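Continuing the series of single-chain predictions for the mutant panel. This is the parent chain; the variants come on the following pages.
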Amino acid sequence: MEQLDERIMEFIYFEGWASPNLLEKERSVSASEDRIRDRCKFLHYVGFIEPIHGEMYDLTSEGILYLKGEIDAEHYPDPTPSKVFKDRFATPSNWAHASMKPYWP
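Parent structure:
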């Protein structure tokens, strides 16, 4: 867990929900929107926040318990970039497979 993770979760706890765009504008959160988006994906992977619509996130029960000091993040999965962003560079499903013949002659 990073300090940014706790700022994100604290904001959500007090405001009810947040998006990376909204969080970027907050004084207590000093990071770019992209950095916040990445941290939200890590927090979602661990199970501390959940997307509620698009990029809007809300705390889970585990996230609330973490903020209250009742659970320790060490007992949760270790989010590595390869696990969290496994689909970031995947080929879109609507792309033609390389073995398919091209449309032109």
